[in-house]
């Protein structure tokens, strides 16, 4: 038989007397004249058979001498009283430093258990004591070392909660129980409860009453009664201010309509998202107080086109779409009661660069390349005037090489061979400008070496400059600036025009008049460099040759 008994007459012991009990991290039993201060004793008292038989010792199961906390909420110590048939088996639990760790006694059957909870960084000792029947006590000691204190908190739980942590009360007048569990800290801390609004349909009966469940010493029960159909929010608050909130529904309020919208509530049935970018959307449920608040998202088609940031199985009203490839996709939002809404996503076809300038009297600039955001076999190409420029396509890589023929302008067009759900093919255009001679200025910049793996502790310095300034054309003339290839360099226009190198390659920076005619042009070159100008490699030795081109673009290099 297990008897739980509170001893409210335990006297405090002076620090000097307490220190006399402390052994350095061992579980060896020792004798003392009075019990140590601490939690209520756990009395394990078998039926008396004649005279009481005192204990002859106490230890921790497994001879536990130390417990180390690295963020866990609690650990348990099991006290073993000798002999097993002793009738005086009252076990007292105590901590030498409650600011570091507390201990709370409990029993499972006839086994005394101490639950140790970390409260602060440092060291403490936890004692388990049993009477020797002569006014003294045997003591087992365990050193507690707290290296990391867990984050305190509280959680509402119970078998009545559904998979979405919602408490559903079928009808008015019906009752359901729920409980809150304090995750760490003082496990006996009271829990207070609140309803989000007096007008909401749930009311607490034994509000704020701390009533431990048999299976959890740090739980608090409440009974929730349905008052009218609708939705309320039930919040549990621990003594240290941590909260947890669940939804309580009374009766059933069906979803009349579900819509996919942007965060500002603008309807979103068709969206265009650039490849590599993301866009947030949400599902709007009508009426606002519906019982079915959970939304399931799924990609109907186009799983290779977009990614969804939320779990499509558990669902959420909020979602972020990330475009990962050119094409079209269809996503669907479904409420719990089966209402649906869809949104078509288009990831446009883009060309890099979107425009290019060729110069006939410069061999390095007479030909230039560009790529499309679609797969090589998914795009067909055409050019407006082959007398100004021609092109060739590498069928393996999809890289297009454009060659200038005569001075002028023409348009190179890419078109997807497939059509979207509306039967439309995606297109993108590149304006090709061919100049007979280059009359602008040249700016050479540098970027650091790109390393495969870890960079050396002392990499060679990057040659200067990495940033250049251009002559600022008089802004009163209506001048605006364009940067042909933002992958190579960034352009900043304020009180001065600054170009910052980003990657190996070249770009044209142009100052254009109000009517888009050319005012001034700069050729910005970021040269290809090796990490070292020369290298001696011993026979049989393999060494990486690092350049200013990153791993993603190494396939664009020709090696000889």
Low-confidence stretches: 1-35, 37-49, 206-218
Q: N- to C-terminal separation?
A: 88 Å
Helix segment count? 2
Helix content: under 10%
β-strand number: 42
Hey, roughly how much beta strand do the residues contain? Answer: over 45%
Q: What is the rounded Rg? A: 38 Å
* Major sheet size, sense and barrel closure: 5 strands, mixed
Summed over residues and divided by their number, the pLDDT gives a mean of 79
Basic shape: elongated
Structural class: mainly beta
Secondary-structure blueprint:
Blueprint: E1 3-4, H1 15-19, E2 30-32, E3 42-43, E4 57-60, E5 66-70, E6 75-82, E7 91-95, E8 101-108, E9 111-118, E10 122-131, E11 137-148, E12 154-157, E13 166-169, E14 175-182, E15 192-195, E16 202-204, E17 219-226, E18 230-237, E19 243-250, E20 257-261, E21 270-272, E22 278-286, E23 295-301, E24 306-308, E25 318-323, E26 327-335, E27 340-347, E28 351-352, E29 355-359, H2 363-366, E30 367-372, E31 379-383, E32 389-393, E33 400-404, E34 408-419, E35 425-435, E36 441-444, E37 467-470, E38 480-483, E39 489-493, E40 497-501, E41 505-512, E42 518-526
Report on the structure:
This protein is an all-beta fold and 560 residues long. Helices cover 2% and strands 45% of the residues. The chain is built from 2 helices and 42 strands. Strands 2, 5, 7, 10 and 11 form a 5-stranded mixed sheet that branches. Strand 26 (327-335) and strand 27 (340-347) form a beta hairpin. The longest helix has 5 residues, at 15-19. The chain starts with a strand and ends in a 34-residue tail after the last strand. Mean pLDDT is 79; it is low at 1-35, 37-49 and 206-218.
């Amino acid at each position: 038989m297990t008897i739980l008994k509170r001893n409210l007459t335990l006297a405090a012991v002076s620090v000097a007397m307490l220190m006399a009990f402390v052994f350095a991290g061992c579980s060896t039993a020792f004798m003392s004249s009075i019990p140590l201060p601490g939690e209520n004793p756990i009395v394990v008292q078998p039926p008396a058979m004649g005279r009481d038989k005192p204990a002859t010792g106490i230890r921790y199961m497994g001879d536990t001498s130390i417990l180390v906390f690295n963020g866990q909420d609690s650990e348990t110590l099991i006290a073993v009283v000798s002999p097993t048939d002793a009738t005086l088996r009252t076990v007292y639990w105590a901590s030498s430093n409650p600011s570091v760790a507390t201990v709370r006694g409990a029993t499972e059957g006839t086994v005394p258990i101490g639950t140790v909870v970390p409260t602060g960084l440092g060291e403490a000792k936890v004692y388990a004591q049993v009477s020797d029947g002569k006014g003294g006590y045997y003591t087992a000691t365990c050193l507690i070392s707290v290296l990391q204190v867990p984050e305190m908190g509280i959680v509402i739980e119970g078998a009545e909660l559904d998979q979405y942590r919602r408490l559903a009360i079928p009808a008015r007048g019906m009752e359901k129980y729920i409980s809150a569990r304090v995750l760490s800290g003082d496990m006996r801390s009271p829990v207070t409860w609140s309803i989000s609004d007096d007008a909401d349909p749930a009311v607490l009966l034994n509000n704020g009453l701390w009533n431990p469940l048999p299976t959890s010493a740090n739980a608090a029960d409440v009974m929730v009664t349905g008052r009218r159909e609708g939705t309320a929010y039930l919040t549990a608050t621990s003594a240290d201010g941590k909260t947890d909130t669940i939804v309580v529904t009374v009766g059933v309020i069906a979803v009349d309509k579900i819509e996919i919208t942007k965060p500002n509530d603008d309807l979103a049935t068709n969206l265009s998202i650039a490849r590599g970018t993301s866009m947030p959307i949400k599902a709007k449920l009508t009426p606002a107080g519906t019982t079915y608040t959970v939304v399931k998202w799924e990609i109907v088609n186009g799983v290779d086109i977009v990614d969804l940031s939320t779990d499509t199985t558990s669902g959420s009203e909020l979602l972020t779409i990330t475009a990962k490839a050119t094409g079209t996709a269809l996503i669907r939002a479904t409420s719990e009661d089966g209402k649906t809404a869809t949104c078509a996503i288009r990831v446009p076809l883009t060309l890099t660069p979107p425009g290019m300038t060729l110069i006939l009297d410069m061999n390095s600039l007479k030909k230039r390349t560009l790529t499309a955001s679609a797969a090589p076999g998914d795009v067909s190409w055409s050019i407006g005037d082959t007398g100004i420029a021609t092109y060739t396509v590498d069928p393996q890589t999809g890289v297009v090489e454009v060659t200038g023929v005569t001075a002028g302008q023409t348009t190179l067009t890419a078109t997807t061979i497939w059509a979207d759900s509306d039967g439309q093919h995606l297109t993108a255009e590149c304006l090709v400008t061919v100049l007979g001679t280059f009359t602008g200025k040249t700016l050479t910049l540098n970027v650091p070496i790109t390393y495969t793996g870890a960079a050396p502790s002392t990499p060679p310095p990057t040659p200067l400059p990495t940033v250049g300034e251009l002559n600022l054309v008089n802004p009163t003339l209506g001048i605006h600036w364009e940067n042909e290839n933002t992958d190579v360099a960034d352009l900043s226009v304020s009180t001065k025009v600054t170009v910052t190198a980003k990657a190996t390659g070249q770009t044209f920076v142009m100052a254009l008049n109000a009517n888009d005619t050319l005012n001034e042009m700069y050729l910005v070159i970021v040269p290809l460099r090796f990490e070292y100008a020369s290298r001696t490699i011993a026979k049989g030795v393999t060494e990486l040759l690092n350049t200013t081109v990153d791993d993603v673009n190494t396939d664009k290099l020709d090696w000889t």
